[in-house]
Structures are given as structure tokens and as C-alpha cells.
Amino acid sequence: MNNLPNISEILINTFNTLINQFVIFVPRVIGCFIIIAIGYLVAKGVTIVIRKVLSSIGFDRIGDKLNEIGLIKQLKTEIKLSDIVAKVVYYFILLIFLTAATETLGVDAITSMVLSLVNFIPKLIAAAVMLQIGIMISDAIKGAVVATCKSFNIPSSKLIGNIAFVFFLIITFISALGQIGIETTLLESSFILVIGGVILSFSLGYGIASKDVLSNIISSFYSRKNYREGQIIKIDDVKGVITKIDNTTVTIVNDTTTTILPLQFFQTRQVEIFN
């Protein structure tokens, strides 16, 4: 019977340990909430200042350019960069104070998790900036492609421009994911295979469908130097004055008719030029 443990002594020691730990932990919890409260006030104050400063220097004009892009309009959203930057700074400051608060508690697991979030934010900002610049460059490339296709009277210029836009946007998106730290090797390989197949199919189909247009464009490089507006010419049974020459056609006007001929005709037909 003397070997039996003293239950009352064990309970008293356990209770004393709990009280001691509670007495130690309560000040840490109070300190943690005080640090979080201070961090919240600091983050709010800095956010208000940053938003006002960025708005006053016209930083939102970049966002206005993004809002004019067709893809952003389709999403029915409005980008205001001063608000976005202010929000990012707000959460960044809050996480820094939250890190200090978790260190006060002495819980290493929570501290490590918060630190990982703090380290992740700069990468996220860099990826967002990269994506924003990529969207603007993609839209500029789209506009250039559409303008070039229209200047050569190539049909489906908007379709070609949208394809170029999506192509460069996907490249930017993959690069942004890599900046964040996400492994993109498999995604890049899949994208290359898919885009290669799409480009090959589109090139074959579009080339067959547009062979006459392309033929006219190629002919224009050889024919335009031989003909000019105001010349009197005869091609087949059509005789008249050249009133207009564009990238694919020649307009011939006489007393009775106006005839528009493809430029490729001038490579395969006999043409008489009258002085």
C-alpha cells in the first residue's frame, strides 16, 4: 500500500503547473493583441497616405489604360492601381506586425507560417507588375498586328490580332507563375505543343483560304512600280484611266464603267500602256 502514488499530490502539482503556465501565457496573449492593434492602426494610416499620394501624382492613369483593353472591358471590372498598391502595403505591414505578435506568443509553427507569407508578398507584387506590363504589351502587339493586316487588306485581321494577344498573354502568365515560385516546366511544354499545333492548323487553313489575297499582295510589290494613277491602260477588253492603286487592286475608270481588277492580273495578262 505504501507504493501507491499520492493522488492528491499529483493533482496539486498539475494544478500548480497549469496556473503557472496560464500566468505566463496571459501577458503574452495581451502583448500579442496590443502588437496586432498597433499594426492595424499603422497599416491603416500608411494605406491612406499611399492612396492619396498615388492619386495626386496621377498613378491611376496607368490603370485607366488597362481599363481600355478589350479583355478588361469584357470582365466588367475597373482597375484602380492606387487602391491595389495601398491594399498590398496594408496587408504587408499587417503581416510584419503579425510576425512580431506570434513571436511574442512563442509558437514557432505560427511564426514560420506568417514569415512564409511575408516572404511571398514581394514575389506576388513582382508577378502582378509583370502581368500588368505583359497585358499592355500584348494589347499593343494586337493593335500593331490588326493595323498591319488591314493595311494589306488581309481578311480576319481582328481574329489574327486576338490570337497574337492571347499568345503573348499566356507567355506572360506563365512567366508570372514562375516568378511566384510555381513550377511551370510541364505547363510550358504543354503550351508549346498546343500552340504549335494551332499555328500549323491555322496557317494551313488560312493560307489555302487566303491564297488569292496573298497572291495579290505579292503581286503588288512587282506591279506597283510599273503603274501609277493617271495612266491610261488596257488589260484584256478593259481600257481606261487608273484612278486608284491599293495593296491588292487597281481601279480603272472610263466613260461608261468603273472596273476593279486584282493586282495579280497584271502579272498574268497582257497590259497596254498609252502615253
In short:
With 275 residues, the protein is α+β, with helices and mostly antiparallel strands. 72% of the residues lie in helices and 9% in strands.
What letter string, H or E per element, gives the SSE order?
A: HHHHHHHHEEEEHE
Calculate the terminal CA-CA distance, rounded to whole Å.
Answer: 136 Å
Largest sheet composition:
5 strands, antiparallel
What is the beta-strand fraction? 5-15%
Counting DSSP H or I runs of 4 or more residues, the number of helices is 9
Mean residue pLDDT: 76
Q: Percentage of helical residues?
A: over 70%
Regarding quaternary structure, what we see is single chain
Structural class: alpha+beta
Account of the protein in words:
- The chain crosses the membrane at residues 22-43, 88-118, 124-147, 159-178, 190-209.
- GO terms for molecular function: mechanosensitive monoatomic ion channel activity.
- Keywords: Membrane, Transmembrane, Transmembrane helix.
- This is Mechanosensitive ion channel.
- It holds the Pfam family MS_channel_1st_1.
- The protein is an alpha+beta fold.
- Among the domains are: 1-106, no CATH class; 226-274, Roll (SH3 type barrels), CATH 2.30.30.
- 72% of the residues lie in helices and 9% in strands.
- The chain has nine helices and five strands; from the N terminus they run H-H-H-H-H-H-H-H-E-E-E-E-H-E.
- The chain has a five-stranded antiparallel sheet, with no helix packed on it.
- Strand 3 and strand 4 form a beta hairpin.
- Helix 1 (7-56) runs antiparallel to helix 4 (81-105), helix 4 runs antiparallel to helix 5 and helix 5 runs antiparallel to helix 6 (157-180).
- The longest helix has 50 residues, at 7-56.
- The termini are far apart.
- The relative contact order is 0.06.
